[in-house]
Each structure stands twice: as structure tokens, then as C-alpha cells.
Amino acid sequence: xxxxxxxxxxxxxxxxxxxxxxxxxxxxxxxxxxxxxxxxxxxxxxxxxxxxxxxxxxxxxxxxxxxxxxxxxxxxxxxxxxxxxxxxxxxxxxxxxxxxxxxxxxxxxxxxxxxxxxxxxxxxxxxxxxxxxxxxxxxxxxxxxxxxxxxxxxxxxxxxxxxxxxxxxxxxxxxxxxxxxxxxxxxxxxxx
Length: 192
Known about the structure:
Layout (H helix, E strand, L loop, with lengths): L2 E4 L6 H13 L4 E4 L18 H9 L5 E3 L21 E8 L2 E8 L9 H6 L7 E3 L7 E4 L5 E4 L13 E5 L3 E6 L4 E6 L3
Parallel strand pairs: 1-2, 2-3, 5-6, 6-8
Antiparallel strand pairs: 1-9, 4-5, 7-8, 9-10, 10-11
């Protein structure tokens, strides 16, 4: 199974089109959305291609392949635009890797703390598990003191912290971070 992971679209329709090009290029089976799909929020600049209705129309074309998590800028009424469920606060996927099963916790990143072993235990996580999150708009692979690996694909429309517009790809062997031009930026190999 292959998953394209997007976060913090914030209504950027052209950036979404550019990112979804890689869904087919990488032969993805599912599209994981980590929240903040339509609205830009009061602390973010308006994306140049801001058009939430077009974003809704585009994402609805993938409705049978979407796994979606709600972000802090997503409201209940946003869900009325989509033909797929999008109001879950978190979720899990389990990957079959060369090293066995790997649990991946999906969250936007604003509700759940993952800094200590006690915090991850409350989420049903153990050291070595993966947390996919967005929210900060800063892409990267972060090894937390709790023992989890936090992977953030960044934002496709409003990147922060000097990072580029980007997304993640989950393949059979790794989670890779790419910019919107398809350049590999970083990767986490499941054999690590």
C-alpha cells in the first residue's frame, strides 16, 4: 500500500492540484489528509490560489480513497462540502513493513501531546511508533524524547520555518518528504 499524505491545504487549489499529481505518479492507494483543508485561519496569510469550493470539488474526486483528520481551522460546516468523513480528531493506520507491523497515529497536531512516554501511552502508542501530524506547517522528521518518530509533511500552501511547500509519501519501506516539484527532501526508513 502507498499513501500520499497532505496537511494544511488551507484552501490552496493550485497547490492541491500540483500535490495530487503525485498521487498517480507514485501509484498511491490512499490519500491521507491531516487537517486544515479549506480555511486559512486568522494567523495565516491567504494562499494565492485560495478557493475552498474548488478544493472541496477536487478532494471529492478521491472520496473512496480518503482518510481524513480534522484540523484546528476545520469547522463542522466544512464537512458539508465533502463526500467523505472529515471530522475525526485522530486515527490510526497499521503498515506491514519488512520489520513487521508498524503503528502510525494520525493527528493534526494541536490536540495531542507526544513529548513524554506517559503522553504517548495515553494515545495507545509505544516508543518506535510513528506520529504523522501537520499544524506547524514545518516539514521534518522529529525524534521525540518519548521515543516516537513525529513526521510532518508541512503545508502545501503556507509553509513555515524555512521549509518548502510539500507532502509525504508512505511506501512499503519508508516515509519520504517531498517538495511540490517532486524533489526528495528527507526520509525515514522503516529499517531504522
